Amino acid sequence: MRLQGKVALVSGAAAGIGAAIATALAAEGASVMVTDIDDAAAAALAESIRATGGSADSLKLDAADEAQWMAAVAATVERWGSMSVLVNNAGIAPTADPIENLALTDWRRSLSVNLDGVFLGVKHGIRAMKANTSTAGSIINVSSVLGIVGTTRAPDYVAAKGAIRLLTKAAALECCQMSYPIRVNSVHPGFIETPMLERGLQNMASLGFFPDANVAAAAIRSLHPIGRLGRPADIASAVVYLASDESSFMTGAEMVLDGGYTAQ
Ligand SMILES: NC(=O)c1ccc[n+]([C@@H]2O[C@H](COP(=O)([O-])OP(=O)(O)OC[C@H]3O[C@@H](n4cnc5c(N)ncnc54)[C@H](O)[C@@H]3O)[C@@H](O)[C@H]2O)c1
């Protein structure tokens, strides 16, 4: 119960990494607002958290929509009295086009979720948490190893994830300067076994980069010296730490969870 008394909002929480984060936060005693663009799946996860004794509710939140952010944050504060943890997890896969062929509309669609969505969460998270007195705030932004090093055929995604890394530091410094009780950190997963990765592997195979998704998975796995892909729980346990007061001296930092991907 490392998060007893905390109230968390997680974006993109109905599947993959976000679902593992929401589940882990609740298991450590936090009340969790499970939000997602897929509100039926968010409601199902909140129900399953409650069924195992946790405290959770759900809301529809398209992370690219500022009005929905304002409503979701207000509803979370209304439901539990305050908000102290915000996990900006919602993200979408890259378009897989090379830069020279990438349409501006596709670039903007990707950035609207992958970067605007994080900016909006940080903005409204700070507004909601800056006056907290009993529990300090923690904002955790889900970036990627692809926010630290580049790759091909994902220019929009890499640009957004790199920007999240420095937006995190800018927000952390502003909170310090304003004496707000809010820490802001980023996490950088390697490749994690989620529906997004599953779709990505299928896509790589259908584009002809690999004969099939299994060969694609083996190639991606080989980029991780530790010898396996990541699991959603690998990221969730780091987020629990960043959400908890155990990390109270940590702000503006990046936590890399990548099986050695960026160590080479
Ligand atoms: N899977 C990986 O290998 C990997 C690696 C590094 C970083 N990440 C990042 O982790 C986060 C979660 O990825 P995942 O693999 O669990 O993805 P996923 O596609 O498996 O799940 C993402 C969830 O976000 C929701 N979502 C999509 N668009 C949304 C929007 N506009 N607003 C709100 N919710 C939305 C989806 O409905 C889904 O429930 C993303 O930010 C992703 O970029 C993933």
Summarize the structure.
The chain has helices spanning 16-27, 39-51, 66-80, 104-129, 155-177, 195-206, 213-221, 232-243; strands spanning 7-10, 31-36, 55-60, 85-88, 137-142, 182-189, 254-257. It has 264 residues and is an alpha/beta fold.
Textual characterization of the structure:
Strand 1, helix 1 and strand 2 (31-36) form a beta-alpha-beta unit. With 264 residues, the protein is an alpha/beta fold. It has helices spanning 16-27, 39-51, 66-80, 104-129, 155-177, 195-206, 213-221, 232-243, and strands spanning 7-10, 31-36, 55-60, 85-88, 137-142, 182-189, 254-257. It is globular, with a radius of gyration of 18 Å. The chain has one domain (7-192, 231-263): 3-Layer(aba) Sandwich (Rossmann fold), CATH 3.40.50.720. It has a 7-stranded parallel beta sheet, with helices on both faces. The chain contains 8 helices and 7 strands; from the N terminus they run βαβαβαβαβαβαααβ. Helix 1 (16-27) crosses helix 8 (232-243) and helix 4 (104-129) runs parallel beside helix 5. The structure holds nicotinamide-adenine-dinucleotide. Residues 11-12, 14-18, 36-38, 61-64, 89-92, 113, 142, 144, 189, 191-192, 194-197 line the site of nicotinamide-adenine-dinucleotide. Nicotinamide-adenine-dinucleotide (NAD) binds at residues 11-12, 14-18, 36-38, 61-64, 89-92, 113, 142, 144, 189, 191-192, 194-197.
